Amino acid sequence: MNVLLQCYEVQPDTASQRIQQAMKESVQEIIQQLVQSVHFQSSKFQLAIMCTMFNPIFWNIVARIEYHTHSLTKMCGGAKKGCYMLAATIFCIGIIRDMVYESALREQPTCSLITGGNWAKLGMVLFGAGQVLVLSSMYKLGITGTYLGDYFGILMDERVTGFPFNVSDNPMYQGSTLSFLGMALYKGKPAGLVVSAVVYFMYKIALRWEEPFTAMIYANRDKAKKNM
Questions:
Q1: 3-class secondary structure per residue, the chain
Q2: Domain coordinates of the chain in residue numbers?
Q3: Residues annotated within a binding site for S-adenosyl-L-methionine
Q4: Which residues are documented as binding site?
Q5: pLDDT score recorded for residue 221
């Protein structure tokens, strides 16, 4: 009788472990199939990764240099002109990055795991949602608010809290990531998922630089106001 009870007690745990193991193997098989569908040696794919990594590094370094030296302000003859120049540069390298990404996806293979009508529809929804976040954020912030105007001393009077900032802390970055992911799913390209992951992690790293520094800029502004 005791032996039967012990067997009864062990069976549920064993069944649970088998299910977990089966799920783990299924996930590993899916990941393996997706990875095998990526041509990592493609020069266009590698260029897309490089562009994705370069852009946030570039604008953060340039913005920090401007904050400490006012080099763009001096070169362009004013803070607003300097900010507009940086904005145009960031916009252009963003267009180049997107073109390189789209070109890279064309020569990458599709994968049956993420192809089909439902995946394409999901991709369109994610891409559309991403664009809404990006464009509405730009509309709310304006050019100087979007393109690092605070590093030029062009500060906003108060924090923007309306849409899209009431649904997303960083709508520009999150919207851009969703757009990359949406394009990857729409085309059924695992390589796009890899690039989307790089976009996500690069923006996470960028925020670790930007958020504390921006908070410091506004804290200094508020402190200066109190001392007046």
A1: CHHHHHHHHHHHHHHHHHHHHHHHHHHHHHHHHHHHCCCCCCHHHHHHHHHHHHHHHHHHHHHHHHHHHCHHHHHHCCHHHHHHHHHHHHHHHHHHHHHHHHHHHHCCCCCHHHCCHHHHHHHHHHHHHHHHHHHHHHHHHHHHHHCCHHHHCCCCCCCCCCCCCCCCCCHHHHHHHHHHHHHHHHHCCHHHHHHHHHHHHHHHHHHHHHHHHHHHHHHHHHHHHHHC
A2: 42-227
A3: 128-130, 210-211
A4: 128-130, 210-211
A5: 86
